[in-house]
Design goal:
Helices cover 30% and strands 27% of the residues. By secondary structure, the protein is α/β, with parallel strands linked by helices. Catalyzes amidations at positions B, D, E, and G on adenosylcobyrinic A,C-diamide. NH(2) groups are provided by glutamine, and one molecule of ATP is hydrogenolyzed for each amidation.
């Protein structure tokens, strides 16, 4: 086999990332040497590769599905939003500057097409198959001229396109038809068909609609994937996370000890790498909630202040909502608080920021003896160390440089009483360290909670990826997918104009 496929979606969050990962895991189980690819990703959830390159966590997860080491080639352009109108542009794993959306789409994006195509060509020359993920919708006609991630990459690389739709949202047939109908004839020629995602119920009830869709578009449906809980791993967008009442997917298994452990995560603006708490949620008996009100900290055994792309803005948000005062009071009472990356910086004495917010000297919460100065260069490393007598691995992504002035050493940061701070993302995925940390939290909180000695976060992640592969293998037309990846889009697919005869609302 030698080929590729672009997984597009009718909308954001249609399931492109998990479908791509599922196809990758299915292929690698067939003995295919496969790699993931996303030309351009907009996400605050990122990862550091072994060579020190920053890429989207979704592509790192997809690389794990492929059982290969992630590289910058798999996500050559990463956009990290710093607000509603600007993003940091990360090219081949390194930041190259801030840019407004208008400036990016006004010219910069198209100049990146050559870089993107070179990366894809290198991957295709190394692997038997490359499964590409699109972004948003391929029918964003206002952006088509500068598109390098959907039909722009498909057209230039000759990739067949599979369009995924989330039927749980409703309107999936209209979304499928509208997506195809809005494309040019040249783009439509690459759209091979559809994949229904998150279906609940009897598939036989859906089949008449799928037959009508084929009659209207001339394109088949390659599968209907059932709704499954707990498969939204390593989501891309921290900006869209729902705050009120959100509970991270967690084990329903009862706690090993007598008590559960309650974790509250402050849902700060521009929250980054909120996937850090997935390892906590994986523990039986640990309940993780995202909160945005001070009173929601009252019953928490542990409060996590997560990373953010806007440290100064997040500090202001904490103060406006009374969360800052609650955190300071909590630290003084010896109740557990963990600051990760930007959260660690906020817990310090002050932040000197002439890079990110350009606000200069800004007071921190003052609960850790740490002073932070933002540097123009971004720290991108994969450190290994020891804490609480256990080996710890992590990764760092930050402009802030912390000067630790006291306290007890804790990874790259420090600990004062039951307040902890570190830049190390992913540290809680180290099983022994996570258990030791949770034992400390339980003791400080007076909870009879015991971490499970059998929970392996890496094994749970592998199980999730296998479940994604099972979804494709059991509910998709894998023979047809194989032909599509190997041979490209079928020839002779009809052009579907908007308002075509036989469609609702058509005239004539």
């Amino acid at each position: 086999m030698s080929g590729g496929l672009l997984v597009a979606g009718t909308t954001s969050d249609a399931g492109k990332s998990v479908v791509t990962a599922g196809i990758c895991r299915w292929l690698v189980r067939q003995g295919v040497k496969v790699a993931p690819f996303k030309a351009q990703n907009m996400s605050l959830n990122s990862f550091v590769t072994k060579e020190g390159a920053e890429i989207g966590r979704a592509q790192a997860m997809q690389a794990q599905a492929c059982r290969v080491e992630p590289t910058a080639l798999m996500n050559p352009v990463l956009l990290k939003p710093g607000g509603e109108r600007s993003s940091q542009v990360v090219l081949l794993g390194k930041p190259v500057g801030e840019m407004s959306a208008r400036g990016y789409h006004g010219g910069r994006q198209q100049r990146l097409l050559g870089v993107v195509l070179d990366c894809l060509a290198e991957l295709r020359g190394t692997y038997d198959a490359v499964i590409c993920e699109g972004a948003g919708s391929p029918a964003e006609i206002n952006l088509r001229r500068t598109d390098i991630v959907n039909m722009g990459i498909a057209r230039n690389a000759g990739l067949p396109v599979l369009v995924v739709g989330d039927i749980d949202r409703g309107g999936v047939f209209a979304s499928f038809f509208g997506t195809v109908a809005l494309l040019s004839p040249e783009d439509q020629a690459l759209v091979a068909g559809f994949l229904v995602n998150k279906f609940r119920g009897d598939v036989s009830l859906l089949e008449p609609g799928l037959d009508m869709l084929r009659g209207l578009t001339g394109r088949p449906t390659y599968g209907v994937l059932p709704f499954r809980h707990g498969l939204g791993i390593d989501e891309e967008d921290g900006l869209r996370i729902s705050l009120r009442g959100t509970v991270r997917e967690s084990n329903v298994a009862p706690p090993v000890g007598e008590d559960v452990l309650r974790v509250a995560v402050c849902a700060v603006p521009l929250m980054s790498n909120f996937t850090d708490v997935d390892a906590l949620a994986a523990e039986p008996g640990v309940v993780v909630r995202f909160v945005d009100r001070a009173e929601e900290l009252a019953d928490a055994d542990l409060v996590v202040v997560p990373g953010t792309r806007g440290t100064v803005r997040a500090l202001e948000w904490l103060r406006e909502r009374g969360l800052a005062e609650a955190l300071v009071r909590r630290a003084a009472e010896g109740r557990p608080v963990l600051g990760l990356c930007g959260g660690f910086q906020m817990l310090g004495e002050h932040v000197e920021d002439d890079v990110e917010s350009r606000r200069g000297h800004v007071p921190g919460l003052g609960v850790l003896p740490v002073r932070v100065r933002f540097a123009p260069e971004k720290t991108l490393t994969r450190p290994v160390g020891e804490a609480l007598g256990e080996r710890v691995e992590g990764y760092e992504i930050h402009h802030g440089v912390a000067e630790v002035l006291g306290g007890e050493p804790f990874l790259d940061g420090c600990r004062v009483g039951q307040t902890w701070g570190t830049h190390w993302h992913g540290s809680l995925e180290s099983d022994g360290f996570r258990r030791a940390f949770l034992r400390e939290v339980a003791t400080a909180s007076g909870r009879r909670f015991v971490p499970s000695p059998d929970t392996s976060f890496a094994a749970l992640r592998e199980e999730q990826l296998d479940r994604l592969g099972d979804l494709i293998e059991e509910h998709a037309d894998t023979d047809a997918l194989w032909r599509l990846i190997e041979s490209g889009a079928p020839t002779g697919l009809p052009f579907v104009p908007p308002g075509a005869p036989g469609t609702p609302g058509a005239s004539g």
